[in-house]
Structures are given as C-alpha cells and as structure tokens.
Amino acid sequence: MRKTWLIFAQTVTVSLAVLFVISTLKPEWLGHRASVVALQEAAPAAGDGGAGLGGFREAVRRSLPSVVYIFTSKEVKSSRHPLFDDPVFRHFFGDRFDNEPQRSSGLGSGVIVSPEGYILTNYHVVEAADDIEVAVNDGRKLKAKVIGSDPETDLAVLKVNADKLPAIVFGQMDGIRVGDVVLAIGNPFGVGQTVTMGIVSALGRSHLGINTFENFIQTDAAINPGNSGGALVDAQGNLIGINTAIYSRSGGSLGIGFAIPVSTAKSIMEQIIQTGTVTRGWIGVEAQEITAELAESFGLPDASGALIAGVLRGSPADGAGIKPGDILLAVGGKEVKDPQVMLDLIAELKPGASVPFKLRRNQSLLEPQVRIGKRPPMRRDPDQ
Q1: Who's near 196: CB < 8 A, 6+ residues apart?
Q2: What is the pLDDT of residues 127-170, one digit of tens each?
C-alpha cells in the first residue's frame, strides 16, 4: 500500500511539472490557454491610442492638422446721434465727436481640403468680412480670400497662397450610421484647437429653419461658438461633416449639434472651385405643406405631396401650365413627400432640362413637361 501511494505521488508530481513547463514554454498546446493567449495578443497594448481601448489618438493625428482657425473683421457703421448735427453744438465742440469707422471681429474654423490652399468653412463665418486671416496648425498666419460661397447651404470656399498644406481625407456618407463615434474639431470660444467626442445622434435632419437646403448630421459631440466651419470626423479621422449650428438657449453646447454632410459639402465645394458659384434648378413656385385638414378638404387619400400656393408669372412652372391649388406628387419620377423634398429634387435638376412632373388637379392626374430654369441668387425664405 505504501509503495502504491509513493508511485501515485511521484506520478502527480511529474505530471504537474510537465504541465508547468508546457504552460510556460508552449501555452498554445493547451486549448483553454490558447484562447487566453490569442486574446492577449489581439488586444492593443496600453497607451497605443487604439480605438479598441477607447482612444482615438490616430484619428486626431490624421485630421487635426487640417483644421484651421479663421479670424475675420469688417467695418461697422455705428449710429450717429442727432445732436452731432446741431450747428450750435458743432460751433462749441467742433468735429471731435464725428463717428470714426469701427470694426467688428469674428472667429470660426475651417478645413483644408486641398494641398493647394483651398479651405472649406461656413458662409456665416466669413459673411461680409473684408479681412480674413487663417491660422494654420504649424503656426503660420495667412491672408485668405473668398473664392465663392453658397448661403443656401451655409458653405464657403477660401483660398490662401500656400502649397503642400495637410489636406483632410474625405469620408463616405454611405457607411455612416446612427450610433457611430464622431469627433468634432475646431476652435470653440477662441480657446484654441479642441477635440470633442460623441456619436451620430440622427441623420437627415431638416425642417429646422437654419438653411434653405437642410440634410444635417445631428451629433452630441460638444459644438460651441467658434466651432463653426470645423471638421466632424469619423473614428478613422476622415471628414464626414462641416460643423455648422447648435441648438442652445444659452449659447453653449446642449448636446444637439448639426453638421453639413460631406457629400453635400464636397459637391458644393467642387462647383465653387470650378465656376465660383453654385447652379441649381428652379421652376418659380411657392409651396406649402399639406396638413391633415387640407388633405381632407381636398379629398386626398393622405397628406403627401406639396400644395402649390403660388406661381411666378413667366416662370418655368407658369409656362408648363402649373396653377395655384395643384398638388405636386412627383418630380422626374421621384416622389414628393413635402415642400422640402420638392425643393431638394428641383434644385438637383440641371437648368435647361425638360423633366416630367406629376400633379393632382381636383380629381385628375396631370403629367406636364417642365423646362427647368436656373435658381436666382439666394432668398432667405425656403420657398421654391
């Protein structure tokens, strides 16, 4: 019995020793240890900035040099007190109180989109400015001029006399989904270059009354005054939007920010660089939304479509026989759900093209051909 016990103890000891040696030198030979080793090898090392550990260091490294500060100034006329025009007052005090020109300054952000010095920003950042200076990430300050702008999407393109600038990489909107992590880069309140993180809260936001053409990315990444024109980038550092507006009652971020999608920004930018302007389709109508009450009064099956409230005399719509009271159902075979969709569909059409429209007039369906005109310069109302 004693001999059997000694043999058992020696066998266990040798087995444990062999197991220890194998687990130390060849852990992959052991099934459960192999999975642990694989996870350890797959996990990014601490401090490597990988997104796997919640870090976006590499995304910031790629995109941050492409975001610039924009300083603007413009001459402002101040109101003149009537007393300064009184002859008696001027006799005693002379012209010392004559108003001298005053200047107001502004601050925003921009994104370098070309190594040749093209910069994309918001129109409202540079609106009416007569002096624009851009501070690049390497410390240089460069004079900039406006190449062109599009107030209806709140975009503008600037040009600086420099080359080999760090241009940002454009992302693809097709792959963006609600819940994706995004970073907002800009110069909030003038404190300096700042990166904030959030997620895509919603896509396709419209009817906000911010711009004529709206298709915003909504994010909870902190966007504050001074961030306007800055970059909204994905977790890889690719540009997916131009930060443009916030919803706020105090002037600070409340976690509801809006960015112009890169697809829209790129299209507008290319037109401005090529021609200096943006060309859109136009037919000359004023439209209004169809409410449930209007749908019932018109005997409509639902509230989809756009009610034509007015037609400009001599416009393409007038020439095609469109009349007030008609309900626009489709443009070029694409369904019109509301006036905003109608506006977007018509704006995408090429001036001079003949396009079929689908209308409801009383209980009849009409399909006139409309020759698209060129949209006039911006009007502050959203009506087509």
Answers
A1: 183, 184, 221, 222, 223
A2: 988 899 999 988 899 999 999 999 999 999 999 999 899 999 99
Q: Which residues pair with 159 in a beta bridge?
A: 118, 145
CA dist 153 and 204 (Å) reads 14
Report residue 280: phi and psi, to 5°: -135, 160
* The one catalytic residue among 66, 109, 154, 344: 154
C-alpha pair distances (Å), 340 with each of 131, 344, 346, 347? 35, 6, 10, 11
Cα gap 70→229, rounded to integer Å: 9
- CATH number (2.30.42.10, 3.40.1280.10, 1.10.287.130, 1.20.140.10) of 281-374 reads 2.30.42.10
Dihedral angle sign, alpha carbons of residues 26, 31, 35, 38 = positive
Is 154 designated active site? yes
Q: Across residues 297-307, what is the average pLDDT?
A: 85
pTM: 0.74
In sign, the C-alpha dihedral spanning 361, 367, 372, 373 is negative
- pLDDT tens per residue, range 219-266: 999 888 889 999 999 999 999 999 998 887 666 667 899 999 999 999
Catalytic: which of 66, 228, 326, 344?
228
Q: How many CB atoms lie within 10 A of CB 22?
A: 14
Alpha-carbon dihedral sign for residues 144, 211, 106, 122? negative
Is 248 annotated in the active site? Answer: no
The residues spanned by each domain of the chain are 173-275, 281-374
Under CATH, to which class is 173-275 assigned? mainly beta
**118-121/102-112 β-pairing:** antiparallel
Selected catalytic residue, list 63, 66, 124, 344? 124
User: Which pair of structure tokens corresponds to residue 222?
Assistant: 């902190």
Residue 182, strand partner residues: 198, 234
